[in-house]
Amino acid sequence: MKLWGGRFTKQTDKLVESFTASIGFDQRLAVDDIRGSLAHVKMLGACGIIPQQDADRIAEGLRSILADVKAERFPFLVENEDVHMNIEKHLIERIGPVGGKLHTGRSRNDQVATDMHLYLRRETKQIIALLVELQQILIEIADANIDVIIPGYTHMQRAQPVLFAHHMLAYFGMFSRDIERLQDVLKRIDILPLGAGAMAGTTFPIDRELVARELGFARIYENSMDAVSDRDFILEFLSAASITMMHISRFCEELILWSSQEFGFVELDDGYSTGSSIMPQKKNPDVAELLRGKTGRVYGDLFGLLTILKGLPLTYNKDLQEDKEGMFDAVDTLKGSVVLLGGMIRTMVIRREHLAQTVKEDFSNATDLADYLVRKGLPFRQAHEVIGKLVLYCIEQGKFLNGLTLDEYVAHSELFGTDVFEAIDIRTVVDARDVHGGTGTKRVMKAIQNAKERTAAM
Ligand code: ARG
């Protein structure tokens, strides 16, 4: 017998039953569903909508079900369709017809929305905590490698040398924004739909503020129709999750490049790499690649929900049941990705000797040579021209700027003096960027300090 079986004279077709059921995935909401029900029934008792002793018996029954759910011994059944009816039906079986009073003044429509808000609030807070942990790993790496210089790129061509720590802190900045975005999404997650009923409100004198306080919601939906139809908070979460995954993916792309023989900047730990079934020499950055791939999956979750919502008239439509799997998938994928990225970078080896050599073998100090001439009085545009010619000369001679003699310099401009060698030294070049946001060592050390304070305050 279905909970809604009254007006039906035939059984549900078996295929329809499994097609419309969501219990296969929404049982993940069971704990939140019971939490919501406990708050609801407390309010029903407090407002005198049902006798207090009935409310107490229902609460007791719900708590015993909660224990079973937590112990993973609650029997979720497809014929009971979804998590809400599984629990309600079981409650009635357990404590008798009085259990049927729980659903007074409530609908599954405001109930499921409440479950989703509770679930996503909890998970979003956890994800923020995981991102802070990832940031702490970035700070540790930056701190431990403050002396390491790597090539910086634009257009994937060597541009200017930077501190490895500066590069790590760029990702720190991205994850800081991701955290801010999630904190902002939390404001819209933290709204209570319960009390909206099916869509128009309820005829019972409910106290929505009491329920909101009980469940710790900052606000209450002001419009019952909006309350049961709104899934913006999930969309916003999925958008923020997509952007975070995009950052993870960019980082992974760099790690894949950096761990190649061509770059050789880092070596990923054996524990975070896999081999080839045919090529014995191979050590592949599978984890980084898979994280890059998983990004597409989370984008899919976002686009799935956007597409589900675009044509829906108010208010509740069964289409909305499709909002769950993508949300669960994005939560699981993002959490796993943040943790794995942290483990992968924490264990990777930064190939210091190789990097120390590699940064000497390019023209990434050319900007500094132009700046040198500017300081000697030449307009920047002319200085650019002189150094451009000098680089061309180097290429023809098979040399780098640090391999030229003073005579060769002076042949290109009378302004060059012996101090030129100091000016193009890679360390000088890096530390000369002594501006707010620049890669100079003092600035980066300060940035690490700021980052430490920021994460400590989280
Ligand atoms: N399982 C449903 C969902 O996830 C619960 C709400 C059902 N409401 C209804 N009127 N059929 O959306």
From TrEMBL:
The GO terms describing molecular function are: lyase activity
Report the PROSITE patterns cross-referenced here. Answer: FUMARATE_LYASES
Question: In what pathway does it function?
Answer: Amino-acid biosynthesis; L-arginine biosynthesis; L-arginine from L-ornithine and carbamoyl phosphate: step 3/3
Main localisation: cytoplasm
Reactions the enzyme catalyzes: 2-(N(omega)-L-arginino)succinate = fumarate + L-arginine
Q: Which family does it belong to?
A: Belongs to the lyase 1 family. Argininosuccinate lyase subfamily.
Location relative to the cell: Cytoplasm
| Family matches, as NCBIfam families | argH (TIGR00838)
Q: Kindly name one Pfam family recorded for this protein.
A: ASL_C2
The protein depicted here goes by the name Argininosuccinate lyase
**Top-level division of the source organism's lineage:** Bacteria
Query: Which controlled-vocabulary keywords does the entry list?
Result: Amino-acid biosynthesis, Arginine biosynthesis, Cytoplasm, Lyase
Q: Where is the Fumarate lyase N-terminal domain?
A: 6-300
Q: List residues of the Argininosuccinate lyase C-terminal domain.
A: 363-430
**Assigned EC number:** 4.3.2.1
Q: Which Gene3D superfamilies match?
A: Fumarase/aspartase (C-terminal domain) (1.10.40.30), Fumarase/aspartase (Central domain) (1.20.200.10), Fumarase/aspartase (N-terminal domain) (1.10.275.10)
EC top class, as a word: lyase
InterPro entries hit by this protein: Arg_succ_lyase_C (IPR029419), Argininosuccinate_lyase (IPR009049), Fumarase/histidase_N (IPR024083), Fumarate_lyase_CS (IPR020557), Fumarate_lyase_fam (IPR000362), Fumarate_lyase_N (IPR022761), L-Aspartase-like (IPR008948)
